[in-house]
Amino acid sequence: MKIIICAGIHEPELTKSFITGWLDSATDRSNNENQPDILVFSGEGILTLSALHILLFLRDRLSNKLESPVIFIGFSAGVVGAIGAATKWQLQGGNVKAFIAIDGWGVPLWGNFPIHRLSHDYFTHWSSVILGSGEDNFYADPPVDHLSMWRSPQQVQGHWADPSIGFPQPPNSLNAAEFLHLLLKRYE
Asked: Span 2-186: which CATH code?
């Protein structure tokens, strides 16, 4: 399975920090079998919004192997391009296992695959429900600034939110990196 990372409009070092923080806290580094196969779409600026450019990147990296299962992880503006690419990839016969949006506030998320949101605060979490709540979600508590979700997910404490339970729900405390790890294990 491939994990496709679609970052937002920010310094590339933040994406490296995200991957390191997520992997260091959520996997056994001594066991290479547990290391996910990650592809980072390196489009910068306006290209992060382009589903077409992400799709071309996928076609190039996966050699048009549509049957290869993929999980998309998008952050901020990268969620826009990533959801479009995931939908088009699936419409062309691609195997999209899941879509994970990290702080994709204001981005409608619908698809014929599981969708999850991670938000930097409760307001962003609940106000995103009208744009597609997805399945299991996460929100930071206490709230953090937007870039902290990407820079250091292992340091962002919060709650697992299941929209089928409704609001309010009992807290299930963990950090964002742990939440990501648990989601990815579900789709192995």
From this structure: 3.40.50
